[in-house]
Amino acid sequence: MKYEDLGFCKVDYDREERTGYPEIIYGEGKSADHIKQIMAKLLEKHGKALATRVSAEKAEFLIEAFPHGVYHPDSNIFRIGQTETSLNGKLLIVSAGTSDLPVAEEVQLTAEWMGCDTETIQDVGVAGLDRLLSHKEQLQTASVLVVVAGMEGALPSVIGGLVKRPVIAVPTSVGYGAHLQGLTPLLSMLTSCASGVSVVNIDNGFGAASQASLILKLANEGADT
Amino acid sequence: MKYEDLGFCKVDYDREERTGYPEIIYGEGKSADHIKQIMAKLLEKHGKALATRVSAEKAEFLIEAFPHGVYHPDSNIFRIGQTETSLNGKLLIVSAGTSDLPVAEEVQLTAEWMGCDTETIQDVGVAGLDRLLSHKEQLQTASVLVVVAGMEGALPSVIGGLVKRPVIAVPTSVGYGAHLQGLTPLLSMLTSCASGVSVVNIDNGFGAASQASLILKLANEGADT
Amino acid sequence: MKYEDLGFCKVDYDREERTGYPEIIYGEGKSADHIKQIMAKLLEKHGKALATRVSAEKAEFLIEAFPHGVYHPDSNIFRIGQTETSLNGKLLIVSAGTSDLPVAEEVQLTAEWMGCDTETIQDVGVAGLDRLLSHKEQLQTASVLVVVAGMEGALPSVIGGLVKRPVIAVPTSVGYGAHLQGLTPLLSMLTSCASGVSVVNIDNGFGAASQASLILKLANEGADT
Amino acid sequence: MKYEDLGFCKVDYDREERTGYPEIIYGEGKSADHIKQIMAKLLEKHGKALATRVSAEKAEFLIEAFPHGVYHPDSNIFRIGQTETSLNGKLLIVSAGTSDLPVAEEVQLTAEWMGCDTETIQDVGVAGLDRLLSHKEQLQTASVLVVVAGMEGALPSVIGGLVKRPVIAVPTSVGYGAHLQGLTPLLSMLTSCASGVSVVNIDNGFGAASQASLILKLANEGADT
Amino acid sequence: MKYEDLGFCKVDYDREERTGYPEIIYGEGKSADHIKQIMAKLLEKHGKALATRVSAEKAEFLIEAFPHGVYHPDSNIFRIGQTETSLNGKLLIVSAGTSDLPVAEEVQLTAEWMGCDTETIQDVGVAGLDRLLSHKEQLQTASVLVVVAGMEGALPSVIGGLVKRPVIAVPTSVGYGAHLQGLTPLLSMLTSCASGVSVVNIDNGFGAASQASLILKLANEGADT
Amino acid sequence: MKYEDLGFCKVDYDREERTGYPEIIYGEGKSADHIKQIMAKLLEKHGKALATRVSAEKAEFLIEAFPHGVYHPDSNIFRIGQTETSLNGKLLIVSAGTSDLPVAEEVQLTAEWMGCDTETIQDVGVAGLDRLLSHKEQLQTASVLVVVAGMEGALPSVIGGLVKRPVIAVPTSVGYGAHLQGLTPLLSMLTSCASGVSVVNIDNGFGAASQASLILKLANEGADT
Amino acid sequence: MKYEDLGFCKVDYDREERTGYPEIIYGEGKSADHIKQIMAKLLEKHGKALATRVSAEKAEFLIEAFPHGVYHPDSNIFRIGQTETSLNGKLLIVSAGTSDLPVAEEVQLTAEWMGCDTETIQDVGVAGLDRLLSHKEQLQTASVLVVVAGMEGALPSVIGGLVKRPVIAVPTSVGYGAHLQGLTPLLSMLTSCASGVSVVNIDNGFGAASQASLILKLANEGADT
Amino acid sequence: MKYEDLGFCKVDYDREERTGYPEIIYGEGKSADHIKQIMAKLLEKHGKALATRVSAEKAEFLIEAFPHGVYHPDSNIFRIGQTETSLNGKLLIVSAGTSDLPVAEEVQLTAEWMGCDTETIQDVGVAGLDRLLSHKEQLQTASVLVVVAGMEGALPSVIGGLVKRPVIAVPTSVGYGAHLQGLTPLLSMLTSCASGVSVVNIDNGFGAASQASLILKLANEGADT
């Protein structure tokens, strides 16, 4: 059975086979009960499950149903279990400011769940280069980098110019006025003067983690010709 | 010497060491003579050089200076030499429509120059799924995929749901009206319902090729822990 | 009497004669009492009535006045009665994700009220094509299709390429960041690479149902030359 | 053979079977020679062919290759042959101003090619209602209406309130300043206060014709339950 | 004394002399106490006062301070007294839908306070032309017209084509999705195909009333050469 | 006969009766020959005619057909004759900078043609208040004011605070960068802190002249109650 | 030690040395406890501290920890101590309307904390020039001017044309509709027809104060060659 | 005489007295002859003159009239003479890429004309930090900095974090796609995480030079209290 129809949704059992990772539940706009039903099915199939954008209220309901699950209130992630064998290589998550931490945590929790080893560097915005440059070696020895930044979104350009590994940039909605709820760092990252930088949606820590995990997985499995 | 100052610009000799690939010349807004001077320096240092967004007129000037260079008028790329040892793994470049071919060619020529083996699938827009699905195996055995699409930019979402390798999406400026010179497929790719998709700027074939090459390079060199 | 002036509004009794269906009440920005007064008049004239965008509080007030009415809290529709003779042909409502269901329900409840037979397919977003393709026959035997999608809005393009009947696309406000409250799928649907697709406003399930019903009505009454 | 691969493109022979009409060539961004090659294949298969957005220069080249083709310089359409059996019902094309005529012609030529009987009403913008209302009967006896308007795009709302048949609105890029190259009428048509109106992309006469033809076809073939 | 400095603001006593009408208080973003202080000064000087955008809470506070004032909760206007001698001529306020009434009321209350005779026509949106056309004579005998509309904002274009007096268009924030909080009718009114229409800001009933009153005043005082 | 159908357009003979002024030809997007045909009809009916946005090439063609017409190359207006009896009152046209002159001329030529006496003040942008204030009396004795400004569009706000007559603001497309082809002064004029200001489309000198003429006409004919 | 790593953030002790002023805490999106920890560190190092965008709730928490701090509820600033030696020269803060006062206060409190002497002029919007011009001498004797304005943002242009000292413009989010939450005055200030005006982000009083203080500091320390 | 009226414009002789520098001619949208007339008047008054945005054709005309003038074709500046006494302090102009040079030259030529000593650093975009950091001392000893950048506009943030003098940021229109003709770096600079940065319009080298010169002038004349 490739998927199961629960009426209100179709649980995609085949996704891991097809795309490398099981379906992850996007919690926004789903009722707590719907999340629970999907999660139960995914748990049964994969032995682990993860939901993003879960509000505190929904989390309370879920924790009763799945007492071994853990809720992370900053990043609104509800997580049960994780991939057992961990991948070689280091996923480095760099964030520009203190206010970008919830998104950085979404990257970290998702990537760990997918089997990645992660490290984090926090609060190294470009207005204080010393803080960033004191981590130069750590930056240059990572296998993949996810760079999280709000405001003007300059950090991925600077880091992209320092490393020879892929950089995935995540703009955040942290800012005001001309920041346009994150559109400005999004557009700015897309026009980065550094090559080797690709971009995901505003606050999309999950998406960056997925992309980074697929890259690490490829590096572990090797590229055939 | 990490860089050389030509007055009007600073040639970044250290870039290969730092970021994995030599500096590539962005030809727009530079005079033919400036391109020539930079190219001469880069050739001397790296034995190969590549310039993007070179108009036909500028190319004529360059071909006189560098008779062994080749100009590709569809993608406006001027290329001399390329990386000798080729990387394991296959970079698959998929384009949605005939009009997206120039950008797809920019991906291909850049990636080859960086040492990648490339394959291409053309004209498989989502309005005719059969054309796409008949390439299913080719899609699923690629190491990295670059997906080029204009119009509504739906192709990366569909492909992202079919493969377990990283997908880099390139929106193109092909379209009219609500297409907004490529902003619509750009935004649409960023909100893709498929995970594992990251995005580069409109028509930025060069950027997608760089990111893809870095991924293949990592896969070839292996990820250390 | 073509319309009746209630002071704060003019009830358009002639609308059914002119446009095929009685006036439907747009509940947003009207007081519960105003909705009640208009509804009473329309009921008297047509024997059935429908109001969209009715909040739970207003619905409580209305249910007291019209105990035979039914309130649908997901889609915020308040409905009394419906067209008796049902139209030949099948209106198929397809939605991309679980979060698009409220809009899909607005389409369904409105279309039924207008005399259409409806069927629904849920949660068949393009990131899992198998789910969609397993419904291929159902898609290809529908008379008219309404396709509801948030995120990048790719579903109507894919379906438009599979069927020979008119497709009406409804973008939804489900998404975040670059999704721009639904503007992105709206624009993306308008630039669809599939022909035979037309588009209505974001979350406008009512509008899609009206258009689809008019099409079915024409098909039932036949086109004169 | 469902499609044929010409290298630079895949000609979709199956499209008529799947979507009701043969592939139509979008001429923008394709070379004259590419258009010619695709057209030859489509002609061979279907006995008729149509290309939109063909510049005068490309048309000159095509007319040599296909002397029985006709080029329409206002709407930039190159057309060879058309569907033989014509559909019952009348497709009425209404345009708001003289400057909207090229788009109206794109609708007409495409729809005729698809087998529709068309009628046109021209220059009946809402600033002179008498002109429009003198055509009231013609409006109300049409089977499907395509309404083409630039400027503020008010015409579809007015017509949508007068007829009981589906209205497809086409915004045009005719205007200046706050008209935003057609975005303003596009958005305005999408928020129309009349129900039963759906919208296609700016200047997309071809899309409106396709949708209208599918509707007429359904009306001719009847809707099964 | 041309103005008085209250510290937090400067009350502009000279405004009536200079611009035809006393200063009117914009209540948004001012504390109830600040409004009270300014209002007391203006009352003392002019014998009448008007504040717009006054919330219910602030109004409660003001009504205690000025028991002869009247608060209009739909339009959020707090009004004390009005110009005694009324102007010749009729200001006709036309609104498209029931939800536009609050803005129409802001026009009416402000214009009356400025000495205008007003009449209103309500709920005559263009989707039901009969309702509008049955008021044709009333429209054509008005001296000045203010037309209030949300949604696609088509009403001023239609009315502008029916009358020989100035039309002032007021877009409202009533709508959703592509309506963009009123930007769409604003832009649409600005590109009206009818001449003789000028436009004020979204929901700016006060501004339309001011402009209309100045026009009537000129008509009463006569234009000198 | 209220209008005459020329096939490609309907000449609206009734417009003067209905809206105060004869139809004016919008030259953009019409062929020279079409303009000629419409102009001939309007001349025959009204003894005068005016076309806006006429290119130099089209003007050459028109001048041959109508040797008594005059072409104004700065404002692209082609004008034949004008209203004989001139209206009492003064229409004052104020422009902010030298580059706004073509739009100011469009206002002037149109308003004269409609029977207005005009005066102009040029180059009085707000960065040099002395220049503006030295015209204070002239400003304050005008009957109606049209204020033309590009850049940040501040002039109408300043003038609106100095006069007691209606001000019609015309933003122009003169500027660059953040000026957004005139959108910035348009939006800025709409949010003017001065009351009594209404706005027309970018570069729409014709619209401002029409509105101003209707106001003067009302002032001449008097406002009935 | 150039910075100290608190885990969730890196306190930048070196900032004063590098950029002229100590780090200032941006309170939005930080927990009260995080603010407290950073503030304690900065106090220890610099003997003074300032946090912007501190909500009333967070302020209550902070006042307990730092009883000698002062909270300013209008501008949401929490301030402890200030620079002792005050700079020569006068920083003049001019605001257009009463609703702009909170931002003006953010400028004032920040600049004082940085050692500036400030003066303020309030409520001198351009719709009442007399109010502004009565302060002409005060304007012309200031060393640096910060001009705060919402609505159409015209005030900096007018002031920029009156003074020979640098003007820093701050758009505010005060307004509605076409004001676009401050984007309109932002864009309008950027296209100012007065030279010598530069602009900071919407509501960014802190940024304007920083720039103005750096200018005064330079003027106090003198410019070396 | 504060200004002289040339009919088409008013030459503002008083500007130097009022704002510190003589009027500068904005050449765009003015005829060569108009520029010549204004320039002659300004030369007579001030002994020097400067025009920006002068096309090559207009320059040819001007050079005949003013043989001692110099035309700079990259930055389109026509300059005659310059301020004699030069200001103490150094204005440092830093540009991110080779394509930003024309704007950097506009800054330089304008500032020199205003009496500033300038230095330039070129091609130090953030993707190669070494190039920038090797100029650290030069950056930190400048009195005022103008930073010119296209693409993502990150350079001013990085420099703002390195220096204690005012930074004026100039976004350029160099870029493509998501760069939005310079809007992206403009918005990005406005949301800079570095304080002490203010911004001027896209490509507005003249504006940045004016602001910088006023700052240097203040530093030379000293700030009075």
What this model shows, in words?
The structure is a homooctamer of 225-residue chains. Chain A folds into two domains: 3-80, no CATH class; 90-221, 3-Layer(aba) Sandwich (Rossmann fold), CATH 3.40.50.1970. The first copy, chain A, has 225 residues and is α/β, with parallel strands linked by helices. In chain A, the strands form three sheets. Chain A has a five-stranded parallel β-sheet with strand order 8-7-9-10-11. In chain A, strands 3-4-6-5 form a four-stranded mixed β-sheet, with helices on both faces. In chain A, strands 1-2 form a two-stranded antiparallel sheet. The first copy, chain A, has nine helices and eleven strands. In chain A, helix 2 links the parallel strand 3 (25-26) and strand 4. The longest helix of chain A is centred in the last third of the chain and has 17 residues, at 205-221. Chains in contact: A-B, A-C, A-G, A-H, B-C, B-D, B-H, C-D, C-E, D-E, D-F, E-F, E-G, F-G, F-H, G-H. Chains A and B meet through strand 11 and helix 9 of A and strand 11 and helix 9 of B.
